[in-house]
Description:
By secondary structure, the chain is of the alpha/beta class. The chain contains 13 helices and 14 strands. 43% of the residues lie in helices and 17% in strands.
Amino acid sequence: MKSVQLRMAAACLLLFVIMLVSACSNAGTANHSAAEAPAVTDAAQNTSGNRANENAGVSSVFPRTVKSADGKDVTIAEQPKKVALVHWGLTQELLGFELPSIAVTLPFTAKNSFLDSDVYKPYVEKFDEVTVVGENTAVNLEALLQYEPDVILAGSVTNKDIVDQLSQIAPTVLIDEEKTNVWLEWQSVITQFGDILGQEALAKQTNDDFTAKVEEAKAQIGQVEGTVAYLQVRDKNIWLQGTTYASDYYEPLGLNAPEEAKGDGIELTLEGLSVINPDHLFLGYFNYNDKSVPALSDEWEQSEVWKKLKAVQQNQVYAINGELAYGYGPISKLNGLEAIVNALK
């Protein structure tokens, strides 16, 4: 009897040891799974975050290396938060991107800056900071240094004389102005900016939106009979805008240019305009917002030659803001399209 009791005790002890080992083994497995779970969650959150950024047009793939027009590979360590643009003519292209802070150079003085205009205000106000680091096309290197940019965007021709100084301040990427006509191929500039800033999707969306706006404008205008001429009206000179520089306003809209406008355009006399004699005439005033500045067309409008123009007699002369509509970049082009649609629809 005693022997049986001893065997039962031994069996119970063995069962207890087996259960203890099993419990410890299960606990180890549970702890291992718990340790892995946060890593999986973090990965999922990162993926989700990346997708959210991509949906917003912003990529998180940094560091990234981009090719500068001088042949150098420029490495950008992190998503830029402070971006300096020292090419005075490409500000419109930069204003469409999602950035906390930008620095720009201006074609005029800050006092006469277009950045304060009602047209630009919606674009400018979305930035936490907009700093001017140059006026009258000249870059203020001291102001640029104080700004402390993460990356500098420059033109291979426009800024060629200060490339070494720029590179000492921050990583500098040159847009190749010999391969890209930055004035006419502004959509290409937007694409290149997107590649540099990690906002490729936003760049594509901006360009796609403009293409859609052109198609919408064409549909609103419908069929327009006769020729359409766009004039650039200054105080002492008037130019016929050619199809080269007004390309978005002719063929894409289904509008017919006078023969004289096919190409770069020409400077006009009143007699020269009477020879062209367009059916529709857009007067792009450069004094549109300041009538105290004279316009040569004011003089022309008093003459009998002017009064005999087809566009004048048919009441098809339209005043637009030429300084804005004939500018280069998406803001100018969108406002030009709007003005043309309002006139012709």
